[in-house]
């Protein structure tokens, strides 16, 4: 059994627990605006995946199932019996795997820019670029991600500083794992409420909404006008407001 890690996390507010999962190479710093807004009515938990930010990794091994087990351990540590699990971008692969493995621990599932598998040529190219940059030019990758996920210049500086603490080797492996992950055939087993966010200009990801709408029983889809992919950050007010409303609906 793979060794457990000492996971760095932040925990604010009280009420319905909502756990946020970031994608490869980024960190939980991107969910600052969720802590600020949602913690007034919910318990917000964000954390760094192993090999990312302030969470070390005992080895170079990483997989989507392993990260789902890390999430289970974190929820147990925090005394959270049941939570809404929110995955952003490829963080959604971990969220879906966790929901499929431990449905009794999931009150609801939220995917922002989510996909059950990397099924399009354009998205495959994006992941292969992430793999290449993580291996050969991690500084370029960090600069790009921090720039595309900043609201203010201070955000950009802090995101960059947190990303640099991680392991490019683990980023590359997680990009590879995410590239080959698929849960499409298991989607009908997701019986909990599912909330989807997509930007109207997020052309790589928007088509996946139809897969979920076809295969998952209880789906609500929100398409954010004029938005690209980075909705929890760039459209955080809209995202937080709609998520808060949905949390009330599923109580």
UniProtKB/TrEMBL annotation:
SUPFAM superfamilies: alpha/beta-Hydrolases. InterPro entries: AB_hydrolase_1 (IPR000073), AB_hydrolase_fold (IPR029058), AB_hydrolase_sf (IPR050266). GO terms for molecular function: hydrolase activity. Keywords: Hydrolase. Residues 17-130 form the AB hydrolase-1 domain. Coiled coil: none annotated. This is Pimeloyl-ACP methyl ester carboxylesterase. It comes from Fictibacillus solisalsi.
């Amino acid at each position: 059994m793979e060794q457990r890690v000492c996971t760095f996390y932040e925990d604010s507010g009280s009420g319905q627990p909502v756990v946020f999962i970031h994608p490869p190479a980024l960190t939980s710093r991107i969910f600052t605006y969720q802590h600020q807004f949602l913690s007034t009515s919910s318990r917000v938990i964000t954390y760094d995946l192993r090999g990312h930010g302030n969470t070390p990794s005992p080895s170079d091994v990483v997989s989507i199932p392993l990260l789902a087990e890390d999430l289970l351990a974190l929820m147990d540590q925090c005394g959270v019996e049941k939570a809404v699990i929110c995955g952003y971008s490829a963080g959604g692969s971990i969220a879906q795997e966790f929901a499929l493995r431990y449905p009794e621990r999931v009150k609801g599932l939220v995917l922002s820019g989510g996909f059950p598998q990397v099924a399009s040529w354009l998205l495959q190219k994006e992941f292969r670029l992430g793999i290449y940059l993580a291996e050969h030019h991690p500084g370029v990758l960090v600069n790009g991600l921090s720039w595309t996920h900043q609201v203010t210049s201070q955000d950009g500086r802090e995101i960059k500083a947190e990303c640099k603490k991680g392991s490019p080797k683990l980023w590359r492996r997680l990009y590879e794992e995410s590239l080959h992950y698929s849960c499409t055939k298991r989607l009908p087993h997701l019986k909990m409420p599912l909330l989807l966010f997509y930007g109207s200009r997020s052309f790589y990801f928007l088509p996946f909404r139809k897969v979920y709408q076809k295969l998952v029983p209880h789906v609500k889809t929100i398409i954010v006008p004029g938005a690209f992919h980075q909705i929890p950050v760039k459209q955080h007010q809209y995202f937080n407001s709609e998520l808060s409303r949905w949390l009330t609906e599923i109580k």
